[in-house]
Amino acid sequence: MQKIKVFFIFALCSLMHCSTTKVDSATEGGLVNGVYQIEAKKYILPNGLTVILSQNTKLPVFSIYSFYKVGSKDEPKGMTGASHFLEHMMFKGAKRFGPGQFDKIIEANGGFSNAYTNYDQTVYYEKMPSAALENILDLEADRMQNLLLEPTGFKSEKQVVLEERKMRYENSPSGQRYVTYMNKMMKNTPYEHPVIGTVADVKSVSRDSVFKYFKEYYAPNNAIMVVVGDINYEKTLSAIKKKFGKIPASKFINNRKEDKKYSIELSKNTVEHYHGKSENPLFVLAFPGVPYGERAGYVGDLLGSILGGSKSSYLNQKYVSTKSPLLNNIVAFNHTIKNAGVFSIQGEISRPIGLSNFKNMLLKDFKTFCANEITERNLQKVKNQYLLDFYRELETNAGVADYLGSVELYKGDFSQYVNELKTYQSITVDEVKSSCKDFLLTNNHYFMTVWKKNKKKFDI
Amino acid sequence: MNKLIILILCFVSLDTFSKVGTKIQNLNWNGVDVVWLESNKFPKFDVTVYISDGALSDKKGGEGTTSTMFSLLSNGTNKYPQKTLSDKFDFYASGISSNVTHEYSTLGFSGLAKDAKVLADLFCHVVRDANFPNSEIDAYKKKSLSSLNNLVANHGGLASRIFRKISLEGTPFNGFSGGSKTSISKITRDSLLKKKNYFNNNVYKKIFISGPSSVLDIASIFKEKCQWSKQASFQRKTITPKFSFKNEQKTEKLKLIFAPVKGANQAQIRLGNYLPVGVFASKNYDLVQLTSAILGGGFTSLLMRELRVKRGLTYGAYASAASQALYGRSVLQTSTKNETLLEALYTIRDTLKSFTDASLPQERVDGVKKFLKGKHLLKFESNTSYIGNLVLFDHLGKSYDDLYNFSNSLDTFTKAMVIEKAKRVYSWDKQVIFVLGDPSLKSKIEKSKLFDIEVVDVKKFL
Q1: Which chain A residue's Cα is nearest to B366?
Q2: Who has the most CB within 10 Å: A208, A271, B36, B431?
Q3: Which of A108, A166, A381 sits opposite B265 (nearest CB)?
Q4: Mind listing the domains of chain B with CATH numbers?
Q5: B-chain residues near A163 (CB < 8 A)
Q6: How distant, in Å, are the alpha carbons of A119, A280, A323, B109, B160 from that of B181?
């Protein structure tokens, strides 16, 4: 069946004079050897644009996700927050569809649009009725090629971003905690500044510098377009080719050096206590992790879930779901980003205890945990949870598009998701035990709290 | 869009409908109504139980009892302690989820299809046998009280909580469904056991299931272990409470309720009011959705355009109005920096005033209709979202056909009808106006001479 499909696609391309250069994958939906197969097709246009299409005719709708391989890690000095700021400005007008037109057209076509930015990527997405496909491709192509960065909108949007910054970080104790510990863990790497940028940089960044940044990074050879839903493969590919095929590739991207991987080194036992609005102390205990895609990272994911990923997990049972809870909540997880990673334990303390004593208590616990709690049952438990989460994510077109695009961006090929699932399934108890020691039984960690009684000012 | 219409026209029998790509079948287990959405794409299932009573069943001073009871169902039974139950549910990647509104509640669980029978057995076991150990109740109370204390740091959440209380004052719907610090402290094991028995034995339930046909094997488990029957028939929505509502603004100078929070660097703004269900009657339910979306339902809404796009005053501004079977309410919410509070309030005032006159462009009405039609389709994408909508429509006593015919319904509304509805729901002089922010804002508001200020203490709302 697979061979027939691949043959069919080649035949189709020759009939269309299609400039698709590669067919990497054509798979059949359903379970194969216990692994769910997502039917999707990948093409790379001559200008470097990667296109992934997946058909789902359940409803007359589709989701389109445009991934740009640029995030806050790529921002030069003085321009922190530029990727996120561009996320806002991409909705504020291009050459063909001017200011105010983008959202108007999206909504008048019965759709919804938004975007998100993180350390490694910026993703724009729309959820639309099928009939709107051509219109949406026109909008996406226009802003990829001809973004205006109109000066009045540029100025007023800075105020919007500063308000968003207050809402998400300055006024939110958990937001403060996040940007602070990531800053500390990622010191001297491109990941040290917050994705939203510093207040000073957001205020001072110039239109010219943002425009240059846009021209360098927002180009077809730095983008992945994923369309999932009620689409026709042939017509969709043809429309994408027509609208994006002539947009030139970025020379900057072609000449860019391969990203460097970072291993985090901290001063031993670093502890900080920041002032925040939280009535109870929020804490994080963070350890250096590994970059996305390494087997140690997948093992770390399962380790985090066994340690503190659900109600029955070790830390939850010990500190939260206990007769005399010390914490209101606790979670442990492994956060992998493209070139680095952090393994963290975070929570909220509910009754008086010396913060340093608490940290030492946790560190002591890890020894017991690593020795006794990583069992076949606990490992199978978290594998079951990962499998169900995977199915849940794939229930919507948007979920499939976001998932395939992310795997393509981080792994270089969306079909690697099968290997990811297999990797999780193949991880053994011994591996997790060994990972437990590597991640947690070390002095290379950072402990910080946010609390109204702390004195140190939030300064990021 | 054509595909949807064709699907809607193609349903085949009284019991089996094939709409929006999913086959629906009505079943009956021991007199309990069951709706099954056949779904074979993934080897998983979802169960949601609609229970026709909610926080309104809590006695005065006992607010939060229903919510606590459902939250603690899996925290101990006569057979298993909390730790064992958590481990069992987690092993199958499941757990009991609950949601309590004033008028109804839902319970749910999900998992891999192969585990459906084991999980159904476990679910029925806790629903029947939960014994609410005192140690679990104490721990739950501590966590709840601590979480409420910490709400002071979450200005957006705190503002919304206070606003609900003050905007629905005088109605039976202004209590906190999750309880207050005072009421949670008083919850006892006995009250939770009584509440569990009441919901098991007295209150009407309807079960919604999605998944492959193999999941229907749980029928016998539900019949034997959950032991729900048609004798449980009470429906809260059939009891219309009596009350007199006072929150209409009557004077020329409007009242603004202000909650000072020291150090807040953003002002939280809320406007809205209680709405009787007549405002939502029949097709008006859809008309209110259209009206609200024009005002504050998307990036091109009037509020977003005036507050964010034109003036950069806020990150977000939203307006919505919704009803249950016995009451409705509207909420308009945004936030802005302290320096621009008055400008934001004036902009909201002017936006609401212009919304209720004839200057609303026809193009805007048509555009938002299309926006809502497209967005509506997405309600059927995931089984949980689809079921959530069916639950709501059942509770409202609306036919599922109204859900499927939403697009056609929108087409019947004229601009004049929208403006009339806007006058009823969003007139500036009918709003309860609330601001939470730094104490220094009080003098700023006073200087505007636009409002009479009433100051409230946030601690009274925890």
Answers
A1: A108
A2: B431
A3: A166
A4: 11-238 (3.30.830.10), 254-461 (3.30.830.10)
A5: 266, 313-315, 335-337
A6: 40, 16, 20, 29, 17
